[in-house]
Specification:
Length: 365
């Protein structure tokens, strides 16, 4: 038996590792559940599934699965997602869950749901859910689109339900700014479906394909202001509106009306990194001085030369905040020197921490 991470309280927590329960048939994935006797494994039922934890996860994008399944009393096929680090928000349900498709028993509908600390009750049910009729005799396409502001569910190309990020959302309402992985499984019994009718066995779900499209977190070519989490009012700026190589990158009060030296064009370089160009000097870009990798190295603007010192990975840390890591020193993060938010404080790279001095909010202009 293979233990899954913590699941919904009412869902079976184990999958058998016997290959017959997760196999290929005609090029499709077949997940099975039955009550066969397996030597050395004396549980009454065995079920199959796959999961991508520690192998593949992503933040924001689209998942599309074409699948069909057999109905039966006690059957519970599911296509769903869980966070790679559930402890980051206190465990389930606060850490979140996205159910792209669930079906129980002989219902003529499928369920598409999100779970979090605000919508999930003590019994495990969620108020953020929708039920839709599906083609019970054939394949259906179940899809989910996930952005920084909403989770949308589709059935056969039709939008069926949207969970929008609440205004001023807490982590209990929106724990969806971190990597989630995929689970496909054919389970049964437990709380929701109730008792299994052995005459309906075996249960199965057949999967034609799984497609995942990762959404860039920021629009390439768009302009952003970069606010510091230290006070959420000061922004990343170029000292004295400088346009020459070596001009300092600093923190400064947000100018009103807005000025170009406080705005940055983000361009996706196609390898998971972005370059950041100041709008008042678009031939320059955000640069780690001398391409150094030691703690305390300051940030400047410099001619765009496509080196790793000018390429930045922007990673979500939740609550709309991000950390920026340079490609030439991926173990470092952008930081406000001394964690001081006074005008003119320079930016540098340093070893990662969870402090606000290394967190930034990027706001599209």
């Amino acid at each position: 038996m293979v233990a899954l991470p913590p699941l919904e309280p009412c869902l079976a927590k184990y999958l058998t590792s016997t290959p017959a329960y997760a196999s290929q048939t005609g090029g499709n994935l077949l997940l099975r559940m039955d009550n066969a006797v397996i030597a050395g494994d004396n549980v009454p039922y065995h079920s199959g599934g796959i999961q991508t934890t520690s192998k593949f996860s992503f933040t924001y994008g689209r998942v599309e699965v074409r699948a069909k399944f057999k109905q039966g009393q006690g059957s519970w096929p599911a296509i769903w997602m869980m966070p790679e680090e559930p402890v980051s928000y206190g465990g389930w349900p606060n850490s979140g869950e996205i159910d792209i498709m669930e079906h129980v028993n002989y219902e003529n509908v499928v369920h598409q749901t999100v779970h979090n600390g605000a919508v999930t009750g003590s019994g495990g049910g969620s108020s953020a859910t929708s039920s839709s009729a599906y083609n019970t005799a054939d394949f259906n396409v179940y899809a989910m689109e996930w952005s920084p502001t909403a989770v949308k569910f589709y059935l056969n190309g039709s939008l069926r339900y949207t969970y929008n990020k609440p205004a001023n959302a807490t982590s209990a309402q929106w724990p969806y700014d971190k990597p989630f992985y995929l689970i496909l499984n054919q389970s049964g019994g437990a709380g929701w479906p109730g008792a299994i009718n052995n005459a309906d066995l075996p249960f199965w779900m057949e999967v034609d394909y799984v497609k995942v499209y990762k959404q860039p977190e920021f629009e390439s070519g768009a302009t952003y202001k970069i606010f510091s989490a230290i006070n959420n009012t000061s922004v990343v700026d170029v000292n004295a509106n400088g346009t020459t190589n070596g001009s300092w990158v600093i923190l400064w009060s947000n100018n009103t009306p807005s000025t170009l030296n406080q705005q940055w064009r983000l361009t996706n370089t196609g390898d998971g990194y972005y370059k950041l160009q100041p709008m008042h000097a678009l031939t320059k870009t955000f640069d780690v001085t001398n391409a150094a990798t030691v703690n305390g190295t300051k940030i400047q603007i410099y001619d765009d030369n496509a080196t790793p010192a000018q390429r930045w990975q922007i990673k979500s840390v939740g609550n709309d905040y991000y950390v920026l890591a340079p490609a030439n020193a991926p173990s470092k993060q952008l930081e406000l020197t001394g964690a001081v938010a006074t005008n003119g404080t320079r930016l540098q790279i340093n070893a990662p921490t969870t402090a606000n001095a290394q967190k930034f909010k990027l706001v599209k202009q």
